[in-house]
Specification:
Elements (H helix, E strand, L loop, with lengths): L7 E5 L6 H8 L11 E2 L2 E2 L5 H6 L1 E4 L11 H5 L1 H5 L4 H14 L4 H4 L9 H12 L6 E5 L7 H18 L2 E6 L2 H7 L2 E6 L3 E6 L1 H6 L4 H7 L3 H4 L16 E3 L4 H10 L6 E3 L5 E3 L3 H5 L14 E3 L4 H11 L3 E5 L5 E6 H16 L1
Parallel strand pairs: 1-6, 1-7, 4-5, 5-6, 9-10, 12-13
Antiparallel strand pairs: 2-3, 7-8, 10-11, 13-14
Helix pairs in contact: 5-7
């Protein structure tokens, strides 16, 4: 098996098939009993184990943060071990917190117990990237968070990978997650047997054997939606209004545009609600009320994510956000259905 530099390779298979064991062999947390593992042409068993691990980032399910250390101290551990001075380490901590979407001024001095599960995982990713390793190992990092947080963390990882281009090896039980995140997927069977190693679209189109087809599961056509990003589809531009502005003006603008709702933005340009014109007409100024049911996906989410979010919220569309959760547009169910029809036509053809 060859893992190309800069790609994300997903290890997927049933519990106990050897995914995590193989992952831990890559950084020698478990010593290989046979075969060879090469990193940049060097056999990992010929290298000092501690030095090897400092070249490889490692993220586990629970975040693995030291509870008695602040966020900044957790992230700065490896740089300090490498002899970085305090100003350089502090600058790197700030850079990485910004990269994973956490405001350094708010989060650097917090302790892990003061963070949500999703925030702890973001800090775990930041710590793994602290010394700028070329390789990042991730062992079911999003398995312990709720589905909404999991979706957001997946989108964040895609954004980070676009910026950094690391070589990532990622263990998961979730085939949909593997299709969404992976450039390539390794499908394991019991006994660490590699059944198929290929791109997501190739596995969906041509499973190597019945075991892979069973693992992919029913609805392969719908799973093709996982190959298309929300940002690849033309989004509908909608009327927006900032909190505290004239509600009547927002209603008039939406009516003129032929729209029946307005997306309300907070002071940072992030959507917080999308009231109907009838609802907004009852207000003098645009309210600051945050709608916890607002269906939101990111531009790096898949069309499958978007459809799931619509169905869960019983809505005919979703609000789409980009960098720093700023509004990018709205995706309607009609656009997703058109993509499904195209996918079915391609499969039939």
């Amino acid at each position: 098996m060859v893992i190309p530099a800069g790609e994300t390779v997903m290890f997927v298979g049933p519990s106990g098939c050897g995914k995590t064991t193989l992952l831990k062999m890559l950084n020698r947390l478990i010593e290989p009993s046979g075969g060879r593992i090469h990193l940049d042409g060097e056999d990992v068993t010929d290298q000092d184990a501690d030095q090897l691990r400092r070249r490889i980032g490692y993220v586990i399910q629970a975040g693995g943060l030291f509870p008695h250390m602040t966020v900044a101290t957790n992230i700065g551990l490896v740089p300090r071990m490498l002899g970085w001075d305090k100003p350089r380490t502090a600058a790197r901590v700030e850079e990485l917190l910004d990269l994973v979407g956490l405001d350094p001024a708010v989060y650097r001095d917090r302790y892990p117990r003061e963070l949500s599960g999703g925030q702890q995982q973001r800090v775990g990713v930041a710590r793994a990237l602290a010394a700028d390793p070329p390789v990042l190992l991730m062992d079911e990092p999003f398995g312990a968070v709720d589905p909404v947080t999991r979706l957001r963390l997946q989108d964040e990882l895609l954004r980070i990978q676009e910026e950094l281009g690391k070589t990532i090896v990622f263990v998961t039980h979730d085939f949909d997650e593997a299709v969404k995140l992976g450039d390539r997927i390794v499908v394991f069977d019991v006994g660490a047997r590699v059944v198929q190693y290929d791109t997501p679209d190739a596995i969906l189109a041509s499973p190597a054997e019945e075991y892979v087809a069973d693992f992919v599961g029913a609805g392969a056509t719908l799973k093709q939606l996982t190959l298309t990003r929300v940002g690849d589809v033309e989004l509908e531009q909608v009327t927006t209004a900032a909190v505290g502005t004239d509600a009547g003006a927002a209603v008039a603008a939406a009516r003129a545009a032929g729209q029946d709702f307005v997306v309300v933005l907070d002071e940072r340009g992030r959507p917080i609600s999308w009231p109907t014109l009838a609802e907004l007409s009852r207000a003098t100024t645009v309210p600051a009320t945050v709608d916890p049911r607002l269906p939101v996906v990111g531009v790096r989410s898949t069309l499958n994510d978007a459809l799931d979010t619509m169905l869960a919220a019983s809505q005919g569309g979703v609000v789409v956000t980009g960098r720093r959760e700023a509004l990018a547009g709205v995706l309607k169910v009609e656009a997703v259905m058109a993509a499904i029809r195209r996918s079915r036509a391609e499969v039939a053809g």
